[in-house]
Amino acid sequence: MPAENVQNFIAGKWCDPIKPGETFLRKDPANGEEVSKHSQAGKADIDAAVAAAKKAFAGWRSTPQPKRAEVIYRSAEIARKRKEEIAQLMTREMGKPIAEARGDVQEAIDMGYYIASEGRRAWGLQIPSELPNKRMYTMRQPLGVCGLITPWNFPIAIPTWKTYPALLMGNTVVFKPASETSLLGKRFTELLIEAGVPSGVFNLVVGAGSTCGNALVEHPDVRMISFTGSTTTGLGIAAKAAPLNKRVSLEMGGKNPVVVMDDADLELACNAILWAAYGTTGQRCTACSRAIIHAAVYDKLLKMLVEGAKKLHVGHGSDPKSFLGAVVNEKQLKSIHGYVEIGVKEGAKLECGGAPLTQGEYAKGHFYPPTILSGVTPKMRVAVEEIFGPVLSVIKAKDYDDAIAIANNVEFGLSGSFFSRDVNLCHRASEEMEVGLCYINAGTTGAEVSTPFGGWKNTGNGHREGGPTVIDAFSEIKTVITDYSGKVQKAQIDNN
């Protein structure tokens, strides 16, 4: 099957780049078969997309919010009908196992239903005045043109986290997906077109971040940038956007810990860690990268983890037996292996995995087995830097206080979990772990669309995706004050 071509979608029309750049050919990371291709777009295409979005803004913002929500709901319904088709494509384009690909699409569907339901909320406050015959309330209004930059690891779900609330609040959108999943970006665009999004309200531009991404961030008519990706790139975006006074929502890296105390259900903890560490082949921002285990149960749980990891099947994502699929590309494969080598040099012990799979069914793909490093200390690079692959660092803790200190000893603060039967310790951990998502007796993954998603420290900059608070990122608050007293009231001066 030849690679499907991906064009830009600007002002309601599919179009080639104005000045086409190098052709990007995307191959199935599991077997090398061609999947998609696109010509790199550039600044001129971003300019055209932003101009289209700016032109469409007035009409879209004046569309009643419940009507905007209906477009979102219809797109979720269309995604539900096309779920299997999109999931199968996801497995081919970025390597995710089919069960997880279906979950990715289902999350997008759920987000559509959830955000559409928010379309009939007032999203304002009635505020009592300290003076008579005076009414005060707040309302939320759109920002304008929003630039949305998304990664390859959740290529349908994450675009909905950003696009749906942006559209609901009356903004218009320029969407730049990752080059590795441009075809899935096209499929998402098709959902919105079929759902009836008006011309210019949603625009797709496909190209490298160094060209399209920078042009979007620096464009004077883009009022907001929402980015998910690496901390280095995210902080660079913030620096470029700051002089232009743009709103920026950042969802960046993680180094997520699972803390296991001596009284924990070890079988439950083991299963949760294996899923959180190796689901999506470790290529998710909430993946468990560190297991911090109480000294009293360290040896026992380590043995359970190693035995469990060795049983996990690695293979093409379309095979239902595959627990781990392919790594997204060769560059990421080399990065993962490089970290394992660093860990061993630093003194960690390689318990299992530890080298790319290259023989037989793995020969044409990018595969890395579930890997465990034991004897990791809190200051090793593998204990503090994001690896973004199927590598688990296992760290021994003396007691509760030591475990929490180790968990917090990183620059990131996205997700963390705590296993114990002691309800008091569980409550303490929920307060003392420096994370935006804290799981008790569960792994570090599995956030639901109705909950705020985001992290502390160098994981984010205070905004949240999902849940009711996502509306904050994509809207402005206006306070309306109506004085019907018929005289000039001087607030605090009259009320002393």
Biggest sheet architecture: 7 strands, mixed
Query: CATH homologous superfamily of the largest domain - what is it?
Result: Aldehyde Dehydrogenase, Chain A, domain 1
What do we call the CATH topology of the largest domain? Aldehyde Dehydrogenase, Chain A, domain 1
- Overall morphology: globular
Q: Do you know the CATH architecture of the largest domain?
A: 3-Layer(aba) Sandwich
Number of strands: 22
Can you describe this structure?
- This protein has 496 residues and is α/β, with parallel strands linked by helices.
- The protein folds into 2 domains: 4-252 and 460-479, Aldehyde Dehydrogenase, Chain A, domain 1, CATH 3.40.605; 256-440, Aldehyde Dehydrogenase, Chain A, domain 2 (3-Layer(aba) Sandwich), CATH 3.40.309.
- 37% of the residues lie in helices and 21% in strands.
- It contains 15 helices and 22 strands.
- The protein has helices spanning 43-61, 65-81, 83-94, 98-117, 157-168, 182-195, 209-218, 231-241, 266-278, 298-310, 330-346, 381-384, 400-407, 423-432, 470-473, and strands at 4-5, 8-10, 13-15, 23-27, 34-39, 126-127, 134-141, 145-149, 172-176, 202-204, 222-228, 247-251, 256-260, 288-294, 349-352, 371-376, 391-397, 412-413, 415-419, 437-440, 456-457, 476-483.
- The protein has a 7-stranded mixed sheet, with helices on both faces. Strands 10-9-8-11-12 form a 5-stranded parallel sheet, with helices on both faces.
- Strand 6 (126-127) and strand 7 form a beta hairpin.
- Helix 2 (65-81) runs antiparallel to helix 4 and helix 9 crosses helix 10 (298-310).
- The protein is globular and about 75 Å long.
